[in-house]
Amino acid sequence: MDVSIMDCKSMSEELLHRIKSFVSSVYSDAGYSETPWKNQNYDPWSTWFWVEVRGELLAAMRIVEKTPDNIIPLEKAVIYGIKNPFLHYAVLEENVADWNAVAFKSSREGVLAAKKTFRTVAKFCADKGYYIVYGMYNPELSGIENLYLREGAEISDRYPAYCYFPGFNLKGELSKFNVIELRKDSLQKIASKL
Length: 194
Known about the structure:
Elements lengths: L2 E5 L5 H18 L15 E8 L2 E10 L7 H4 L1 E2 L16 E9 L3 H21 L3 E6 L4 H9 L3 E2 L7 E2 L4 E2 L2 E2 L3 E6 H8 L3
Parallel strand pairs: 5-6
Antiparallel strand pairs: 1-2, 2-3, 3-5, 4-8, 6-11, 7-11, 9-10
Helix pairs in contact: 3-5
């Protein structure tokens, strides 16, 4: 089972659309709603990772590199509990990225593909020398939570409040996300399991 890696600038529109459709389908099957707040164009700064077996996508994940002229998903999310005015986090660090769009089939083969993809993404991030890789997960989905925390991710002290995307619900309820951090040593530890 091989993990494919490609930055968006090198991908055909057809392949990029296929991977994004797969991610949307997995999210929809899990009970997530659609919202334009979640679907920003991060393509110029993105690298996708995916596993395809016998023509079927089994897992996909994306890294969005932070630059001074973009925002990453962490910065697009709204901080939960603060309503007037609504606030966002600002990531002012350099040499960091956001790990997102984690999706995989809920089958044995899908879980194996997700684990291999997860480790490949960690190796990529370690090789790129990212100081921290941020991510967000919904604590209602214990599988994702276990995957991240068991592998060395930590709940962020720097960005401790829940975040959300307006209109992005799970089974009719607002989805709230914990912000996590994977530091260089955690990325290297995960990558060593390849």
